Task: inverse folding
């Protein structure tokens, strides 16, 4: 049997959250009713795990906080205050909120928790408590079912873990470009000569361009550089990353793939080029708001990383959106969110329209449209 002091901390938040669910399911004698709250990305109101507990005559919640053991990270007072404030919105109202953390015991943190507990009780609110890693290990000594699960599932296996980021960052700022056009109408009477000249110009036929229509580029498109890192201790095989956005958050998504359509080459040459492009392709748009990254190299060794890019047009008026990702491979999966902040760049343009009929005069008009350039 592993000595309690030798128990390793969970290597990822999923294992820690499941450990808390199983352990407090035993402690509160509610193994069949204790649940994880909602799914990742939803507002959880400061509660990750909850159950009705007969001992307390109401619902109790657990806020699971994983902390980096190497930097000796601790819960901050700001974190504690924020989670307590969020938990006020949990319905039905809870009787107890426990901060379960992988951080080591800390006298200052425990003192602050006791103060918040007294404050809440005096206001008629839920009690507040903390369980540091040493406290959790002590409980594991008493509750053997959870202890056996943890030892057999989380102690002796090599841990698989990945990290998804915007080239190393968990959030990024994009700047779609727009034009704010102020249109003003101005009346000017045509001279007799100008009227004749205008008639002749309008009668001329339009000549087609010898070079075809110019290519139009929508400057709302914003590029996102995605990085996947193998931060675990195992080799990952046949990985795939699914990336998607809420349909209302974006206008379009682009996987940066296109087929060759050159009119100046014969069909066989064009087909050969397209077959080569398809063979090297790694990013696939699968829905209007979703794409998949399927790297050609199916083996992903420890400390290695993969990079790919994509582009989106964010919905007009949105200031923040989530990139939701799901990583899949043999015997492992993981989900998460990345944050995209939107700061539109707006160019000012004044347009004057000269009219020669007073009935065509209008009030000043202001419109905001996508910035389109031609090449």
Result:
């Amino acid at each position: 049997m592993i000595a309690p002091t030798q128990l390793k901390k969970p290597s990822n938040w999923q294992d820690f959250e499941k450990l808390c669910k199983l352990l407090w399911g035993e402690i509160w004698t509610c193994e069949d009713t204790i649940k994880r709250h909602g799914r990742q990305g939803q507002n959880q109101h400061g509660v990750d795990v909850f159950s009705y507990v007969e001992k307390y005559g109401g619902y109790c919640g657990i806020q699971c906080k994983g902390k980096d053991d190497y930097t000796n990270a601790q819960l901050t007072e700001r974190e504690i205050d924020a989670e307590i404030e969020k938990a006020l919105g949990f319905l039905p109202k809870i009787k107890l909120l426990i901060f379960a953390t992988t951080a080591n015991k800390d006298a200052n943190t425990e003192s602050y928790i006791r103060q918040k507990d007294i404050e809440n009780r005096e206001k008629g609110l839920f009690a507040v408590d903390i369980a540091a890693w040493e406290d959790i290990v002590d409980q594991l000594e008493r509750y053997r079912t959870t202890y056996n699960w943890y030892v057999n599932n989380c102690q002796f296996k090599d841990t698989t873990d990945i990290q998804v980021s915007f080239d190393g960052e968990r959030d990024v700022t994009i700047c779609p470009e727009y034009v704010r056009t102020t249109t003003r109408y101005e009346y000017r009477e045509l001279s007799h000569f100008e009227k004749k000249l205008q008639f002749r110009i309008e009668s001329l036929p339009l000549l087609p361009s010898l070079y075809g229509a110019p290519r139009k580029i929508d400057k709302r498109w914003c590029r996102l550089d995605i990085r996947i890192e193998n931060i675990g201790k195992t080799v990952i095989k046949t990985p795939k990353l699914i990336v998607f956005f809420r349909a209302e958050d974006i206008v379009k998504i682009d996987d940066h793939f296109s087929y060759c359509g050159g009119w100046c080459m014969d069909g066989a040459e064009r087909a050969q080029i397209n077959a080569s492009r398809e063979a090297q392709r790694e990013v696939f748009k699968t829905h209007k708001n979703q794409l998949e990254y399927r790297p050609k190299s199916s083996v992903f060794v420890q400390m290695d990383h993969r990079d790919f890019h994509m582009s989106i047009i964010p919905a007009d008026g949105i200031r923040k959106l989530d990139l939701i990702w799901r990583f899949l491979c043999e015997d492992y999966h993981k989900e998460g969110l990345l944050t995209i902040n939107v700061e539109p760049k707006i160019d000012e343009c004044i347009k004057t329209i000269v009219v020669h009929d007073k009935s065509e005069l209008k009030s000043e008009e202001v419109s905001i449209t996508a910035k389109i350039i031609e090449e």
Notes: The two ends are 71 Å apart (CA to CA).
